[in-house]
Amino acid sequence: MLIDSHCHIHDFDTYKFAISRAQGKARPIPEEYTPEKLLARAQENGIDKLICVGTSHEDSLKACDFASQHENVFWSYGIHPDEAERCNFDMGGASRGTPCARSAEGTSTLGDDSRQDPSSKLQHPTAIGEIGLDYHNSTSTKEPQLKLLEQMLDLAIKNDLPCIFHVREAFDDFFAVLRNFPGIKRAVIHSFSDSRENLEKCLNEDFYIGVNGLATFANIPLAPLDHTLLETDSPFLAPVPHRGEVDEPAFVKNIANFLAIHYQTTFEDVAKITTENAERLFKI
Ligand SMILES: [Zn+2]
User: Fold this and answer.
1) Domain encompassing residue 32
2) CATH label of the domain that carries residue 73
3) Global pTM value
4) How far is the CA of 96 from the centre of ligand 1 (A)?
5) What is the Å distance from ligand 1's center to 77 Cα?
6) CB burial class (10 A; 0-12, 13-18, 19+) of residue 252?
7) How far, in Å, is the centroid of ligand 1 from the Cα of 201?
8) What digits encode the pLDDT tens for the residues 250-282?
9) Which end of the chain is more exposed for a tag (fewer CB within 10 A), N or C?
10) CA 257, CA 254: separation in Å to the nearest integer?
């Protein structure tokens, strides 16, 4: 069994965008990339659990909706740092009552009520994410990103949920913010692509590291298997031998294969360890 701990299959619009850019051998047919077809192909390929990761309030609700209709599909509530400027929140400093916080807290699935209501068809989220900081060509400037991250960390602590972090060229600021939130104990740094030094700092926090197709074609420092999660970030970052194609959760097995070769162990070993890691972190 394998887990795709980070995908965006609930968002067909993002898939259509990726399809328009794909350079793979066969021209992708959009109808083959509907959330239902992607999920079916994942299951046929031994990917038994998936986490649909939200990138905005609206997108998170879409992920919630899709997850609620399928067993073994989970979702996370997140607002990507790129959305920070579009998020019209109060710059006065209050994290409560601001539009971002309000919309997040207003999500019934995040409240205690839905957790206690077994009749609720809506699952509560598995994590808060993706959230973080992105200083690489982001559509948002630093200050709103930092404010948004703080709000999202508050939300994670309040709901006792692990975080899915997206951090790009921003680790110094990221660790500085984290120091003010000692309650953040459980997290994954998804799609890690930074230095070995920053990898070590993440591991010192006891965070997991999400490995996707990027590691199969770029020289990225890897975490020990006991701190590794498998992910795709599909529809982007298709692994070798699918580079240029539209990525999908079924390709998680290529990443597991890559790690098995890298660590000179078996595919089964990688599958078992990374699955247990994801189950432990997300309680799924
Ligand atoms: Zn993502």
Assistant:
1) 2-282
2) 3.20.20.140
3) 0.89
4) 26
5) 12
6) buried
7) 22
8) 999 999 999 999 999 999 999 999 999 999 999
9) N
10) 5
